[in-house]
Design a protein that fits this description.
Layout: H1 2-19, H2 21-29, E1 38-40, E2 49-51, H3 53-61, H4 65-77, H5 80-85, E3 90-92, E4 96-99, H6 103-113, H7 128-131, E5 140-143, H8 155-173, E6 178-182, H9 189-201, H10 214-230, H11 232-246, H12 250-274, E7 279-280, H13 290-299, E8 304-306, E9 309-318, E10 324-330, H14 338-350, E11 361-367, H15 371-383, E12 392-398, E13 401-402, H16 419-440, H17 447-468, E14 475-476, H18 479-483, H19 490-506, H20 529-539, H21 541-551, H22 554-574, H23 584-605
Parallel strand pairs: 5-6, 5-11, 6-7, 11-12, 13-14
Antiparallel strand pairs: 1-2, 2-4, 3-4, 8-9, 9-10
Helix pairs in contact: 1-2, 1-4, 3-4, 6-20, 9-10, 9-11, 10-11, 11-12, 13-14, 14-15, 16-17, 19-23, 20-22, 20-23, 21-22, 22-23
The structure holds arginine.
Length: about 625
Amino acid sequence: MLRIAHALEAQLRAALERAFPAEAAAASGDGTPLDPQLAPASQPEFGDFQANGALALARRLKQPPRVIASAIVDQLAADSSFAELCEPAQIAGPGFINLTLRPRTLAAELSTRLGDPRLGVPSAAEDPVQASSAEVLAPVIVDFSSPNIAKEMHVGHLRSTIIGDALARVLEFRGHAVLRLNHVGDWGTQFGMLITHLKQVAPEALTTADAVDLGDLVAFYRQAKARFDADEAFQATSREEVVKLQSGDPVSRRAWQLLCEQSRREFQQIYDRLDIRLSERGESFYNPYLEPVVVDLAASGLLVTDAGAQCVFLEGVTGKDGRPLPLIVRKSDGGFNYATTDLAALRYRFAVPPEGDGARRLIYVTDAGQASHFAAVFQVARRAGWVPEGGRLEHVPFGLVQGEDGKKLKTRSGDTVRLKDLLDEAVERSEADLRRRLAEEEREEDEAFIQLVATTVGIAAVKYADLSTNRITNYQFSFDRMLALAGNTAPYLLYALVRVAGIARRGGLGAGEGESAAGFPDHLVFSEPQEWALARQLLALDTVIAEVEEELLPNRLCSYLFELSQVFNRFYDQVPVLKAEEPARGSRLALCRLTADTLRLGLGLLGIPTLERM
Ligand code: ARG
């Protein structure tokens, strides 16, 4: 409905200007043009849209809102292009204008979706609101996943990976150039300890690829950390090792590279299973840009030396003693930290090429625990003048992953859950569910089919369970819930898609990927309320996608798809489809086909692969 909404918006603006020419001229003179405040109707019985702008204008003009509303409605009535789209506008309540689209507007709009691979979702460049800003083609950066080298990737990284990928897919679909950056933790003091320790206990790990696996590396890292905390001599050697590494000593570099490659291979296995694409650009990339950050902060007068450390005092962020908190950018030992790296990364990402990425929107997907870190980094970057006009900085926080007991997710033996094991278990359980179902239905299927369905459903369940909850809240991990065939789950939606596509196919409107679009009716005709409800739900897809693009909440898209499958069920239960007479039959089958296409597209944007059969 985005295109229709834009048309209505323009008509409403024109009506406002005709009804109140003096006020409109004055308002656009002071840069606040009169806003019709068009929004989707708050209740279906109010129609499709409502315009609330009469109330604000009434306050300015000190006149009754209904009088204002009726002046606008009179102007709308005189506009023939409005009459094409809408039934006569209605005034409701204190002065809202309710707008109901004409049935033929809805049917025609839906017709254009048939066989359209984008299902009517405009790309941002064609979207009048966004396209007006020339930066629309400047890249958007999604910084996500970002595990740490020599450490195990944990469930927090899994959340970041799944949410970040879904957001990147939505942005890409909307036509943005998206840089998917894996800001891996591949720099800093942990390498000093690790290399020092390995030189003593497992030197082959530093000279030979594959001498140890990530599990060993994690164990070595733990030992190194314990020694670092207990042993001063070890501490000193580790620090020297970091300096060597950062100054480019070839032996240390080689060792570091081997460690990174080892971790990278393990991470890649997870990304492959989840079908995630990422460009690695780790913390080490920004090493040459750390010093300039500090120089730049000093030049802009923000840098303060406090107890030997160089820092910027934050505005509006105070500690327990009521004094402003500092963001430390250079420690008293001269070392840089996580915040310095993020400042350097941010500065690089906004900087115009070839000095940087020339991005206009930076999106960081991490756990909510890093919210104050990002707030501080963003504030300092703004004050330093590194954020270009119109540049957007967004932290996309998410809650903790908890076990079913509400505590931190742990294995039965109390260890942290390894991602590989978690994905394996999801697939194993989904396979067991499938075999049980096949036995019940007395269906024979070959092993390849069983493996494909089990893997697809298992991975889809893990992803969808994460995406469908509001990401800000903590999230309870439950295999039983995510694999259930009923409710707002991946298996339910995958199954709904198979079923709906099957109905369309039986009716001759094959909904398989790549199947031809022949046989679509020229005109869609609907008579039943269930048909209209489904048509409206289908048409809301573009609005929902635009919302996710703005608000970065994938659960909106999940709720929409779940709701769509329910509206479809009501339609299919109550209205004959395959047995209906023409022309109703063709139009109803078109609704089925569009429902299948919409479910497939939506799941694809969430990074969830779909099945033809299950
Ligand atoms: N490596 C960090 C962690 O594991 C996440 C990095 C997120 N991205 C960033 N630009 N700070 O917590």
